[in-house]
């Protein structure tokens, strides 16, 4: 939705042509939210942009797209990571789309996404540093519980084999 060629240092151009019209029912309204994404930040609490757009608010890009499908987001920080949520609405209903983009840094290049520790950040229980020790502890506790059960059973069988002393 935000092609790399349309990213600048402080602005990006959204291409909403991914919501192609089907059966002559093209989107009439777009709801767009853009917010900076920090370490694991998926909640758009610090929303930078929350806007509703109609076809009249969009523009067409010469030599690229023939119909109105684009809009600009400005006042962004260079080399920053942003998330967005777009909902296209028409008479048939709503179609949501979420994604992310980087702005270009001061040298004009887009940061390599695979070198960032923020991109694709795993949830708490999907991190190896959490799940491996947790699994080891749970297996250890399970072995202890099974051991205690067998020990108690063994003691009970031993008690049954011992003759009781008459009083």
UniProtKB/TrEMBL annotation:
<feature type="transmembrane region" description="Helical">
    <location>
        <begin position="130"/>
        <end position="152"/>
    </location>
</feature>
<protein>
    <recommendedName>
        <fullName>Fibronectin type-III domain-containing protein</fullName>
    </recommendedName>
</protein>
<dbReference type="InterPro" id="IPR036116">
    <property type="entry name" value="FN3_sf"/>
</dbReference>
<keyword id="KW-1133">Transmembrane helix</keyword>
<dbReference type="InterPro" id="IPR003961">
    <property type="entry name" value="FN3_dom"/>
</dbReference>
<keyword id="KW-0472">Membrane</keyword>
<dbReference type="InterPro" id="IPR013783">
    <property type="entry name" value="Ig-like_fold"/>
</dbReference>
<keyword id="KW-0812">Transmembrane</keyword>
